[in-house]
Amino acid sequence: MKRVDIYRTILWVGVLVMLLTLLVSSFIRLARVTNSINYGNIPPNGTIDIGYVENPILTFLHILPGCFFILSGAWQFIRPMRNRLIHVHQLNGRIYIILGLIIGVTGIAMGINLGFGGSAETSASIVFGLFFLYALIKAYWHIIKKQFILHREWMIRAYSIGLAVATIRPLTGLFFTFTDVPFHTFFGISFWIAFIVNASIAEIWINYTRNSSGKKIKSLS
Ligand code: HEM
What we know:
disordered C terminus, binds protoporphyrin IX containing FE
């Protein structure tokens, strides 16, 4: 097995773990919001839950498309599917971009309206939400121009940012275990760390595959 294939496998395992983490967190969050609304169980002020219950439409508009976005994104990166079912790839790609635009806008709105993690969370959501929207638009622009390599690179950037909310989970676990920092403070800091970590891994992968395979790379994974 070539080194690039080993790294690709590791990356895929990471993506699948993040994908599952996001699907489980989404299910739990939506179930809790629905339960609170149906049974009138309003969470106490100052908890992380209250923001979601007070903004149910925004929460659903963010998390439901988010689930389809990460699933449709994973599909787009599976090379054999892409090569064999190019029409499905093109259709799914359009859906993926529309979902991404919804998530980017609602993600920024969540960071401003909920912002349990304070200004650190709000600023991280705005900066990376805008970068995420930019990456999606760039990726689309490049595919229209038939610039496949640039399309691939901007799609990887966008997808890595989309998955970053999953990276926040283990980070908050680490903070809980090893520090006495209040939850809302480290939650905000975790946003910055998670987005930076995911964006950096994407950049390393893009550079590595660009350098090791050069012009031969026609694939998206
Ligand atoms: C640009 C991308 C994204 C940004 C800027 C963003 C931003 C945010 C923000 C600000 C919150 C609220 C945190 C709080 O104060 O409680 C949030 C929550 C959440 N987001 Fe996103 N998000 C993005 C992408 C996604 C994607 C792709 C998913 C996929 C399902 C997702 C799933 C969730 C979930 C499940 C929550 C609730 C977390 C919890 O239960 O604690 N997000 N997001």
